[in-house]
Amino acid sequence: MSQWEMRMSQRELHRVHVVRLTMEGRESVGEGAKLLGISARQMKRLRRKMREGGVGQLVHGNRGKAAWNKTRLPRLRKVIELARGRYQGLNDTHLSEKLKEKEQINLSRPTVRRALRAAGLAAVRKRGVKRHYKRRERKAQEGALLLWDGSPHRWFGEKFGEWSLMAAIDDATGKLVCGVFARQEDAQSYLTCLRQIVLKNGIPLAMYMDRHGIFRRNDDHWTVQEQLAGQQTPTQVTQALLALGVKPIFALSPQAKGRVERLFNTLQDRLVQELRLARITSPEQATLFVNGSFRTDFNARFAKPAREIQAAWRSLPKELDVERICSFRYEATVGNDNAVRLAGMILDIPAGPRRRGYAKARVELRQLLDGRWRVYYKNELLLETAPCAAQVPLRTLRRNYRSSKPRKIVAAKKPPPYFAYNARSRTGRYPGVPHN
Fold it and tell me: What's the mean pLDDT in 101-117?
C-alpha cells in the first residue's frame, strides 16, 4: 500500500502535522510534545521514524493485520452449520449458550450474531419501536404477588397444532412458579396450577390476571340468589382464590401485566426449542418438563433476588382441604328419592346416621380435578365417587341464569271480535256495536 492510499484518522493526521512542524523548525521539540501530550523523548522517536520511513511509520503497527483473538473460519462455519441444522430457530443468546454447553464452542453473543448475519441468517424475532408505559415497581417480597396468564402457541412444532400454556410468575423475583399445558385455556388448568403452587410454595397474597371469563364474570345474568346477595357468584377459579384468602386483581390492559407477557415472549423463544431438543410432543410430558429441569435452569438464569429476604408466602394450614378448594363447586337440592341431579347426572346419596334422609336439603357438589365427585352437607362429606377411568377435560357446567336486563314488554295482539248470537230473537251483533 502506497503512502497516498493509506487512510488515516484525524488524530493521526494531527500527529503527522505536528511532527512535520518540528522537523521544519517551526516548532520546538518540547512544544510539539506538549501539543501531542507525549514526552520529549517520544517526540524524538516519532521524528526519527518519519525521517527514515516517511508518514506510514507514524501509523499504528497493527494496522491491516488480523487480531490475535480473531475467531478462525472453520469454527465459524461449524457455528453456521449448527444454526441451520440442529439449533435452527434459536435466538442469538440461546444459541450461544447451547454452543457452550453442548458443543464446547465458547463464543460471545456478539460474535455469534455477526457470523449469523454475515451468513444471511436473520434474527428470529424482530423488535420494533414499542410504546412507552410507566414502569411499576416490583413487590418487595417473594409470594406477595403472582401474575398468571395463558398463551396459545405451537409449542410442539407446526405439525402438532396449537396448544395453550398456563403459567405463573412471581412479581418480586421473576421466577417461573408453575406451568401447565392444555389444548385450550380453561379453568381446570388454572385450578391445577393453583394447586401445585399452594402445595409447593404456600399461599400467595394476591394474584394478578386479565379479565378473561375464566377469572371474572363478564355476563349480565343474575340468579334470584345473586340478586338478593347484591353480587354475582364468582367464577370457579376466583372462588378457589377467595377460599384461600388470595386477593384477585384484574388488569385493565395487556401492558398492565407486562411481566407475564414478557415471560411468554421468552418461553415462546426458548421453551419451544428445548421441547424440540428433548423430543417432547405430549402435554403431560411437557408439563413435567416445565416444572422440572427447565424451571430450575430458567430461574437460575433469569430470576432476581427480592428486595426483602423474608418471603410473603403463607403456610398451608393442616386442616385445609386443597383438593376440595381447587375443584369445581356447585349447589343443588336433594330430591325426594335422595338423589342429586346436575346436568343430566344423578348421584344417589346413601342414608345418614340412624337411616337419616336428605330430601329437600341444599347440598354442595365438588368435582375434583381427577374426575371424582363429592357431596357435602354443612361441611359433612356424604358421598365420594371413584375417579373417572377416561381422563377428559373438565368444563364448568351451565347454570340457569336470569338476565338482569328488564324484559321487553310486547303488547299482546287484540283478539278478533266475536259474534254474539241471540237465539231467541235470531239476531246477532258484535259487542260494542249497537243494534240498527
Answer: 91
